[in-house]
Amino acid sequence: MVKVGLQGARFFAYHGFYPEERVDGNDFMVDVDVEFLQQQHFNTDEIAHTVNYETLYLIAEKHMNITRKLLETVVQGIIDEIKTVYPFAEAIRVSLKKLDPPLNGDVECSFVQITYHKPNEI
């Protein structure tokens, strides 16, 4: 199994349940892991034989720019697009952290993480 991903991709975005969050915005961090079975030998040195982490970044960036009330909706959108671009992905894990969320206390971040596992084919 091969794993390719991003850790700590930072974005400023306008996600949040409360209207003021969608006006003021916040800092976010995205982590993405994609696992897949190696289909070709990596000695071929071809990016087509792996997951391109630049593509993962562009997918995350696209979905971070679409304002949503729920972080779950953002994460699901990222996963769904990765599944489309990389149908050979066996597992995809996306974590979205809202840094310094607007709460009545000192909280480093809130987060949502969703893990997709490709269904077993019969």
Give a description of the structure.
This protein has 122 residues and is an alpha+beta fold. The protein has one domain: 2-Layer Sandwich (GTP Cyclohydrolase I, domain 2), CATH 3.30.1130. Helices cover 27% and strands 35% of the residues. It has a four-stranded antiparallel beta sheet with strand order 1-2-3-4. Helix 2 runs antiparallel to helix 3. The radius of gyration is 16 Å and the shape is elongated.
Poorly predicted spans: none
CATH class category label: Alpha Beta
If you average the pLDDT, what whole number results? 95
> Any guess at the CATH architecture?
2-Layer Sandwich
User: How many separate structural domains?
Assistant: 1
Strand tally: 4
Largest sheet: 4 strands, antiparallel
Strand order of the largest sheet: 1-2-3-4
Shape, per Cα inertia axes:
elongated
Strand content: 35-45%
Features:
122 residues; alpha+beta; 3 helices; 27% helix; 35% strand
